[in-house]
Design a protein that fits this description.
By secondary structure, the chain is of the alpha/beta class. It contains eight helices and 14 strands.
Amino acid sequence: MRVLVCLFIAALCLESQQSPPQAAAVQSARQPAGDLTTTLPPQKPTFVTAVQEVIVPVTVTDEKGKFVSDLVQSDFQILDQGKVQNIQYFSRERAQPVVVGILLDLSNNSRTHWKNYQDAAMELANTLLPGDKRYSGYLIGYGSEAELMVNTTQDGEKIMDRIRKLKPGGGSALYDAIYTACTKRSLVQGEPVDPRRVVVVIGDGNDNSSSKTLDQIIELAQRNLVTVYGISTSAYGFEASGDPSLVRLARETGGRVEYPLVNPYTDVSGYLSTPSDDGNYAYTVGSGGYASAIASSIFKSVANIAGEVTTQYILRYIPEVAADSIKQYRSIEVKVSLANVTVRARKGYYPFTP
């Protein structure tokens, strides 16, 4: 017992002798060597926000609406807040990778021409998802609520199969559908640079059921670098109250709207030459000729959007943002050194985290 007591006392003494050097070591690890801590004045914390590279898909068309596909980088100029920027990346390759969201209107407004809308959605899925790994897509249906019906996939048949089973009914929650596209689906590695993000709305642009507003959705799409296109379901003789909203969504994000059901037979021989009680239509509604003209017009609209999505010029640059001029929204203008052409690109972006 005496030996054990002596060993215990010795251990306590040894620990008390080692404690000061250990404490000093910890303190020295926390402070720089020398007298710097006493000679330098205390510094205020600095918060730095990095500006990400801005991606600008650009479409250039001539007077006849055909794509101008032979431009080079020197033909383009980008102005950010009115200041010319240095384009650091340029591409005009065809078959560019994209993730396309098909947003299908399931509201009561779509009942009259529902079969035509189904055909447009299935044709779009079949065209943009040919089984190539560079292309992915997803399906969102929106009636009174928005629902992710097919998550991100490279299999277009999954989307087409689900579209075949859909039936319209209820209100229209278009804005919530775009919110779902931006926040509630599986992502593909490399988004939004490679592949890029595209949303195609097949509907009339009307919204009467969303919890989000149009302004909120435009900002969300711009922050997520989503380009919105539209295949309008507005038909002959009908005015869609939501059309201005659909046009604004497309214009602000660099897309456009197609109208396959408005005068689909203007190129038909005899158009407006055979008046009838039903109106000056080349084909009687319900006839085989009318159905064929509608199908042809839908196919053309889908081809126009698919062709534009996969053949755009891609410009990228890192904006020069002064520390004392941070803005919530920055405007973009793209110019081309060619006369009589139409240039479509996103109108601006949000460089900083909200």
